[in-house]
Structure formats: structure tokens, C-alpha cells
Amino acid sequence: MTGSLILLRRHPLAATLTFTLGASLAANAADLGPGEFALVSPGDPVEDWHLGSGARLDVRPGAETGRITGFDGGQVNVEGAKVSSTDRAAISIVDGAVNLTNATVVSTGSIGMALGTLGDDTLTSTAILSGSSVRGATTGVELDSADLHARSSRIHGDRAGVVLKGGTLALHEGTVVSGGVGLEVGTPEFWQKDLPNEVVVQASLIEGLQGSAVVVRDAQVDIRVADGGQLKGANGVLLEVIEGGEASLHVSDSRLEGDIRVEQGASADITLDNAAQLRGQLHNVQQLQIGAQSRWETVADAQVGALDLRQGSVVVQSGSILRAETLQGEGTFWLDHGRLQIDSQASGSFALHLASSGHEPQGPVVGIGSGDATFDLASGPVDAGAFAHELVREGDQWSLRPQVDMRGKARLSNAGETAMAFDSSLEAASQVESRWVVGRLEKMRTNGGSAGLWMHTGTTGFDVDSAVGTRYTQRVGGFALGADTLLDDTWRVGAAVGLSHSAIGLQRGSSATLNSYFSALYAGWGDNSGYYADAALKLNLFDGTLDARAHDGRKVSGNRRQGGYGLTLETGRRLSLDQGWYVQPFIQLSAAIVQGQRSSLSNGLEVESSNQHLNMGALGIKGGRVIVLNNGLELSTHGRIAVMDNLGGTRRVSLNGHELDNRFSSGRTEMALGVSSEVLSGWTISTEVEAARGRNVDQRYGINLGLSHSF
User: Given this model, what pLDDT does residue 189 score?
Assistant: First the structure.
């Protein structure tokens, strides 16, 4: 016994064990001699126990004991019972074993449980916890050259949850270790058996309630976090390595959030594998390896030593720089307006995901010191500012450069294309509305000069290939309401109001909508010789929204509101032929001005349009026949063919200061067929279909329906 006491005095456990041994020899303690066995049952006195060499103590459900100490092969089995102490460790075992099942171990004045192993034998002290709770006023569990395996258990210490100084700490199935510091790792201080430090956190949690989750001090440790395991620190640090410590952290199928801090003179290697995720800063980490489906997310400017990607990825916070000493392997970098800088050697093949932006690119995206590394865009051209960009290597740097299409022009970004399409769509909407109004004057001549109330509704579809290479479709639908009167046999005047709605569709999911509100005054003159002249003056308010989809799927939105006005003139002659036929050659001129506007899209793209001057001329011929049916009903049929084209004008748009000419030929050949008839006394219904084909603009269809009532 004296030799054992001398050995025990070399370690902090010694204070507990020596005191206990002394006390047990005096009073208030139950001693088990070598190889003896005792059973504590409910109702038995609450007393301290000391186990001699090879002794065994079983505590049955419902029972309670004081503190338990033992050494040299002693074994403690506690099931559904409580072990407590007020001034010493509740359980202190050297060279023994502890099995806790649904048990509670509490020390209100010291360590909850302490295990150690002497260096002069082959035993390793081991504790197995299942569904149990261990709590200490200072440390929950202290392991010195000892092992602990816990399942579905809780360990807490006010200063530290667990102190590991040689041995294995294995946490499984929802076990929680917590304390001021969750886990503190050191080296054995007194015991001669020098076991390596190993930590397993499988579907469990180590949490520092006042500091870091894990602190490694002047020791080596291998930490494995798997299957949803967690490390959490109240100070935002999940691993802290100090005083020359060395840590290896392997994360598998888990998501960790927090920083890793390594003091100068200490070291840490991190491995992420099997869909592991780490979000946080790495301070002085020597090596980071990222395996398949795993990733590291930075939270600011970040730095790491050797970066090794093995089908893994790195997400760099927006606007931040990631620096690494070396880079190797294969993987992906997500750079949200950030930058990658490799100070020394870089080798391997890497894909870059670059976030879209309405701002122009600034400076290189990637820079390396040396090496044969290759970098490519993962999803094709990048929307950055006004244009779509490709990645180009220039020496040891990779930068973005506008992509050029087959026509030698820089291809617009999706947001830029949407802005340009919206700008050019104003012309088609204005033309369709003017046709509705001028068409009313034509119907008045066809119907014998009658005036009254009228309405018109229609839908028209266009395919457009603009000057800047933007291709889009535009469907214009709406209505007009008007009233007119005859001043005399030659003059007729009227007024109308209306609304058109344009749905604009572009490639890659972008779109825009245009609502046009208009009012118009119109007048017509004609004499018995068939000559006529029509005029319509129209005022517009254009109100639209843009909904672009950038290359990375991000939504870009914006609003545009512009005013405009225009004048349409048409003159020709109606020539009557035999059997009710007629022909009507005509010429039409139209001019419109749309006010310019400056606006900013949601991604920061600046769009500024100048005043648009839209001039169009048309030359054509109309013809038809009035057919009288047997019942006396008259059908007025007509057809129209015309050639129209732009007559000068300006249409300039600036995207982030890049001035673009959005003027293009709207020239096309137009054909139409229609019929009208008075279905009831004073009520006339009309319908017309039309289509047109041109170099840049095709009108795929036009369907119009009118209804009028003559006074």
C-alpha cells in the first residue's frame, strides 16, 4: 500500500486517491480488498468506496453511493444509479475500468470522473458510458493515458468538459461534451504510459460554452469528426492549437462552422472528405486537403499554406481574396467577385464559378507565382457589366475579357441584352397602336363615311434580331376605344384611348414586360375623286419591367418609365373598279420621339438611353371588293401589301458608359387580309389577319377584331 501511495502522489489524481485511501482507513468508507466483490442496492447507506487490486463494485438501479476510487484492475459498474461527491472526484480510477449505464455521476467541488494508467503494466484505464451523465465543478472527465467511449451521454465541466492527456476520447450517437472549453488536449504529466491522443466525434457534439470547442496545448492529437458531428465554440473558434501543439483534423460527412486558430510554433493539418463542409477562417493552418463533394467557405480575406483539392471546392466570400502558398489537384473555386492568389507553385486543373455582376470586371481573377495549373470557367461566359466575358490567361494571371460573337461584336450580358430588347420594343408597340387608330379612318371610308363609337382589340407577334445581336420575341396585345364624327362630306375627326401590353422573351430565361398607355387625336379628308389624307397624333406613357436571368441563374430586375409622342400621315387614292372592286395605292409616313431615361438595374448595371427618334415609311396598295349577299347583307373584303422601312432616326443606349447604337432596319414586307360586315342595324364587325417578313424583324402573326356603332 505504501508503494502505491508514493506513485499516486505524482499526479493530480493522487490528491484524490491519497485522501481517499487515508480516509478509508480511518472511517466513513467501504474498502474492497484484492479480488473482492460488493453490490450496492437501493436503501443501502450512502458511503465512499475504495477498490483494491482486481476488486469489483456493482451499483444497482436506484442505489446511491459517495465517491469511488480504485486501482490495479479495479472495476466499477453503475447502472441506473448515482455517484456523488462534494470535495473530490466522484470517480477516480487508476489501471481499472468503469462502466456507466443510465447513471449519474456528480462532483460539486472537483472533477466528475478521473481515469489514469500507470506506465509499469499493460493495462489501460477505460470508461464506457451509455445514456449516462457526468458533471464536475471543474472538469467533467479527466483522462490521463486512459480511454473513454460514450454513447448517448452528457459530460460537463464548468472549466472544461474533458481534459485529455494521452488516450482516446470516442463520442458516439448524440453524446454532448460541454464546458467553458469543450475539450482540452495536453500531454501526460506524471504517468509513464505515453498514449497518443485520439478523438472521435461521431454524430456528437463538443461545445465550448465560454471559449473554444477544442484547445490543443503542447500536445499532438488526431481528431475525427464524422456523420454530422459538431464542434462549437462560444468565441467562434472550433479548434485552437497553442504552445507548440500539433493537430490533425479530419472531417467526414459533417458541417462545421467556426475558425481554426494556430499559434506561431504550433501546426494544424485539415482534411475535409465525404461531403464535409467547413465555414470559417483558417489562421496559420499549414495544410488543407479537400476531398470529393466537400468544401471550405471563407468568411473574409483568407490564407492557408498548402491547398490540395481532390475533387473538392472552395467558396470565397464575395469581394474577398484567398491566398495560398501552394495549390495542387483538381477542384472548383467559387469566386463571388473575389480573387485567388497562389504565392508559389500551382499545378493541376481547376474550374472557376464566377458570380454575375452589373459592374465591369476589375483586375485579374487568378494569379500564381509559377507552375502549369490551368483554370477554366465552369459554366461558360460570365455576365459582368455590359458584356459576357471569357477567361483569358495573361502570363501568370487570368482575367476576364469580353466575348466576341461571329460578327466580331462583343456579346452583351443577359441583363444588357434585356435592357436593349426593352429599348427597341418601344417601336413595335407604338407602330401597332398607330395602326389601330389609322385603321379606323380606313374603315370609315369603306363603310360609306359613317361615324360613331368603336373599339379595336388585337394581338401581334414579332421575332426580332436587333443591331447589337440581341434576339427576342415580342407579343403585343391590347385594345383601343374611340369616338368620331363627320364635320362635312369631306372631313372626319375623332379621339381614342387605349392600352397595349408587350411580353418580351429572350434566350436563357430573360424577359421584360411593357405597358403602353396612349391617347390619340385623328382626322381624315377625302373627296369624291378618291383622294384622301389621314393623320393621327398619339401620346404615350411607356411603363415596363425587366426580369433578366444572369449566367449563374441570379435574377436581375429593373423598371423603366418613359414618355413619347408620334405623328402618322397617310395619303393615297381609292379607285373604284367594276363589280364592286377597288384598288387603293398609298404612302404612309410616321415619326415618333421617345424620351430618354437613366436607371440602374438590381445588379448595378447602369442603363441610359437618349431620346429616340423613330421614323418609318411605307409604300403599298390596298384592294378589295364589296359583296352583296342574297339576303342583302354586304361583306366588305380587303387585302393589303406594303413595303416599309426605317427613314433615319437615332436610338442610342449606354450600358455602364459603353455607348451602343440600337438602331437597326425594321424593313419588312407586309401582307394582310380582312373582312367587315354590318351584322345589325348600325353595328359593324371587322376582322383582319396579317403577317410580315424582313431582314431583322418578322411579324409572325397579327389578329385584329373591331366593333363599331354608327350614329
Answer: 66
Question: Who contacts 232 (Cβ-Cβ below 8 Å, separation ≥6)?
Answer: 182, 205, 206, 207, 208, 213, 238, 257, 258
Nearest-5° angle of CA 93, CA 95, CA 99? 55
Q: H or E element: which one contains 583?
A: strand 581-594
Task: Write out the DSSP string of 393-434.
Answer: EETTEEEEEE-B-TTS-BPBPHHHHHHHHHHHHHHHHHHHHH
Q: Please state, in angstroms and rounded to a whole number, the distance separating the CA atoms of residues 351 and 156.
A: 45
Q: How far apart are CA 527 and CA 444, in angstroms?
A: 13
Quote the CA–CA distance of 421 and 428 in Å, as a whole number.
Answer: 11
Task: For 169-224, write each residue's pLDDT tens digit.
Answer: 999 999 999 999 999 999 876 555 567 899 999 999 999 999 999 999 999 999 99
What is the distance, to the nearest Å, from the Cα of residue 174 to the centroid of all Cα atoms in its chain?
A: 31
Instruction: Assess whether pLDDT exceeds 50 at residue 18.
Output: no
pLDDT digits (tens, 9 = 90+) for 225-258: 999 999 999 999 999 999 999 999 999 999 999 9
**By the 8 A CB rule, do 660 and 653 touch?**
yes
Q: Is residue 666 scored above 70 in pLDDT?
A: yes
The set of residues, in sequence order, having a beta carbon less than 8 Å from that of 401 and lying 6+ positions away, is: 389, 390, 391, 392
Cα 312 from Cα 273, distance rounded (Å): 8
Tens digit of each residue's pLDDT (9 = 90 or more) over 3-12: 333 333 334 4
Task: Give Cα separations from 534 to 439, 444, 573 (angstroms).
Answer: 10, 11, 11
The confidence score (pLDDT) of residue 21 equals 39
Pairwise CA distance, residues 458 & 541, whole Å? 19
Mean pLDDT for the chain?
Answer: 90
- What's the grid cell of residue 56? 469489483
DSSP conformation letters of 549-581: E-TTS-EEEEEEEEEEEEEEEEEEE-EE-GGGE
Q: Are 214 and 238 in contact (CB under 8 A)?
A: yes
DSSP one-letter string for 122-176: S--EEEEEES-EEEESSEEEEEEEEEEEEES-EEEEEEEEEEEEEEEEEEETT-E
Give pLDDT, residue 9. Answer: 34
Torsion over CA of 394, 400, 402 and 403, rounded to 10 degrees?
80
Using alpha carbons, select from 284, 349, 252, 344 the residue that is nearest to residue 310: 349
Q: Is 86 helix (H, G, I), strand (E, B) or coil?
A: coil
Full-prediction pTM beyond 0.85?
no
In angstroms, the CA 281 to CA 233 distance is: 13
What is the predicted pLDDT for the residue at 194? 63
Residues 6 or more apart whose Cβ sits within 8 Å of residue 191: 11, 116, 117, 118, 119, 144, 145, 166
Task: Using the CB atoms, write b or e for 52-76: b if 16+ within 10 Å.
Answer: bbbbbbbbeeebbbbbbbbbbbbbb
Tell me: pLDDT of 535 over 80. yes
